[in-house]
Amino acid sequence: MSRAKHFDAIVIGSGPGGEGAAMGLTKAGLNVAIIEKESSVGGGCTHWGTIPSKALRHAVSRIIEFNNNPLFCGNNTSLHSTFSNILGHAKTVIDKQTRLRQGFYDRNECTLLFGTARFIDTHSLEVTKSDGTIDTYTADKFVIATGSRPYRPADVDFNHPRIYDSDSILSLEHDPRHIIIYGAGVIGCEYASIFRGLDVKTDLINTRERLLAFLDNEMSDSLSYHFWNSGMMIRNDETYARLKAPKTASSSTSILVRKCARIACCTPTAERVTPMHLIWMPLDSSRILADSLKSTPTTKPILTMSMPSVM
Ligand SMILES: Cc1cc2nc3c(=O)[nH]c(=O)nc-3n(C[C@H](O)[C@H](O)[C@H](O)COP(=O)(O)OP(=O)(O)OC[C@H]3O[C@@H](n4cnc5c(N)ncnc54)[C@H](O)[C@@H]3O)c2cc1C
């Protein structure tokens, strides 16, 4: 049996946490490997978090600017784009970012391994590659930077064709006319502004009394004002009671929300046929730490890194 390749340190996960750790350790003269389970480096930040959402938001801002500028809309023309159209633009930004980050590892001679890492003992890892083959690596120290994933409550069916979370929304292929966003934290507000900017009827359900309550009141009020002004429906201080999601993709999905003793229904009326979509992203516990490293290492990692899910 061939001996497992040994490194001074192995970093698991190539998001901003893992990248920073790997670069720091490599520059300190250690022989470092970084393991990534996806097919390219960058982590959630590059592929399904910060970068895609900012690229989408930027594209929507440009569309709004174009539509409001008399220079371009002389003949009362207006530009209409869909979420999947602008997603194409986001992909080019993601590709650029991925190439840039890949260059960091190449330049610093940090070994890059693709596959899913799993501890088998205190100093050894198994890496399962996409073709199913398994390699073993050993190291003196480990950095676990496996990130987080969105919180999925057990009573919400995320396999439903009209229910998404903040990661899976990037797979939305059609053009929704109405969307409910449950959870008005930074990410919820960001996606609400993106969809509203694309002229999608948007309900934003906030479990707190005001938007982004950690901000100064003036800023929170200003955000609410601009959202209301754009035609968004903000439902502060409401929490979900029940979700109605018929299996047929053409049927409306509705959410029953509760406010103090009052029950309000943020749903289409019975006659309404517009299919509705729900993105689930509550502010609290919106992302939970990834538990992809099935066995718990008994060796102490140098540090465990997971950056907060909101800025
Ligand atoms: C929509 C959205 C918008 C955001 N906007 C911002 C923003 O504007 N500003 C900001 O600062 N933050 C923002 N964030 C948060 C930011 O993306 C995260 O805080 C950041 O990505 C966390 O970095 P990380 O390195 O801890 O984990 P991640 O970036 O999640 O990286 C973890 C990596 O580990 C890999 N991995 C997991 N398990 C294994 C395994 N067993 N083996 C091998 N690899 C594994 C994963 O594939 C992934 O590539 C946003 C997040 C979202 C979802």
Record the SSE blueprint.
Elements (H helix, E strand, L loop, with lengths): L4 E8 L3 H12 L4 E5 L6 H5 L2 H19 L14 H25 L3 E4 L1 E6 L2 E5 L5 E11 L3 E3 L12 E3 L12 E5 L3 H12 L3 E5 L11 H13 L3 E3 L3 E6 L9 E6 L2 E5 L9 E5 L6 E3 L13 E2 L7
Parallel strand pairs: 1-2, 1-6, 2-3, 6-17, 8-15, 9-10, 9-15, 10-11
Antiparallel strand pairs: 4-5, 5-6, 7-16, 12-13, 13-14
Helix pairs in contact: 3-4, 3-5
The protein binds flavin-adenine dinucleotide.
Task: Please give a structural write-up.
By secondary structure, this protein is of the alpha/beta class. It is 28% helix and 27% strand. It contains six helices and 17 strands. Strands 1, 2, 3, 4, 5, 6 and 17 form a seven-stranded mixed beta sheet that branches. Strands 8-15-9-10-11 form a five-stranded parallel beta sheet. Strand 5 and strand 6 form a beta hairpin. The longest helix is centred in the first third of the chain and has 25 residues. The protein starts with a strand and ends in a 7-residue tail after the last strand. The C terminus is likely disordered. Bound molecules: flavin-adenine dinucleotide.
- How much helix, percentage-wise, in residues? 25-40%
Summed over residues and divided by their number, the pLDDT gives a mean of: 83
Order of helices and strands: EHEHHHEEEEEEEHEHEEEEEEE
Can you count the beta strands?
17
Number of helices: 6
Global shape: globular
Bound molecules: flavin-adenine dinucleotide
Radius of gyration: 22 Å
Question: From the helix content, strand content and strand pairing, which structural class follows?
Answer: alpha/beta
- Uncertain runs are 260-275, 295-311
Profile the largest sheet: 7 strands, mixed
Cα-to-Cα separation, first versus last residue: 47 Å
Strand content: 25-35%
